[in-house]
Design goal:
The chain is an alpha+beta fold and 222 residues long. The chain contains four helices and 14 strands. The chain has two domains: 5-97, Beta Barrel (Ribosomal Protein L25, Chain P); 103-185, Ribosomal protein L25, C-terminal domain (RNA Polymerase Alpha Subunit, Chain A, domain 2), CATH 2.170.120.20. The strands form three sheets. Strands 1-5-6-7-3-4-2 form a seven-stranded mixed beta sheet. A four-stranded mixed beta sheet has the order 11-8-10-13, with no helix packed on it. The longest helix has 37 residues, at 185-221.
Length: 222
Amino acid sequence: MADLVLNTEEKTTIGSRSSRRLRRDGKVPGVLYGLGQDPEIFSVDYGDLRGALTTDAGLNALIQLSVNGTNQLSILKTLQRHPVKDEVIHVDFVRVDPNQELAVEVPIVLEGVAKKVTDQNGMVDQTMFSLSVLSLPDSIPNELTADVSELEINDAIRVSDVVLPEGVRTEVDPEEAIAVGTVTRSTMESMAAEEASEVEGDEEMEGETSEETDEASTEDSE
């Protein structure tokens, strides 16, 4: 099921001081837990970790995590980054049972050209970038696609429009919007200017008509 093996080293001490020391050496502290077994702490080479999490499966890659000499099927649960340096400071992995569903976030990719939107100088605004799904480990998709070809202004592509692979389901509201066709700010400003110009023109015409009526009334009275 998972050919990707990530080797780790046993971590015998805990605490921020030992974790900082590991990071200085290019390693990331981590923990493996789940399936009713005791947690196991470890450290992993940052380069190896990055390589394991940058395959087509991304952060949902199934990994044979080698901890204390034993390979254990796992998946990334949490990846913590430094708030300023943006470097990885800790990882959590959970053990995986191949026969139990997993809840994962799968990226959503828009496909197609929303010609009905662009022809009106509009734009496609993606509002949801990943979808929470439930799936057996070997059925987790790398990504989900949403077709925007028929999208129109003030219309939306919704969760219900995404075709999920066999064995994959979601509990997210099917009416939740993924992408909407919107009018750009420049187009809105242009439309507002046109409307203002039309109103001004109508007012001028009304003013001229009123003046002509007044003049006609004056002539009649004379």
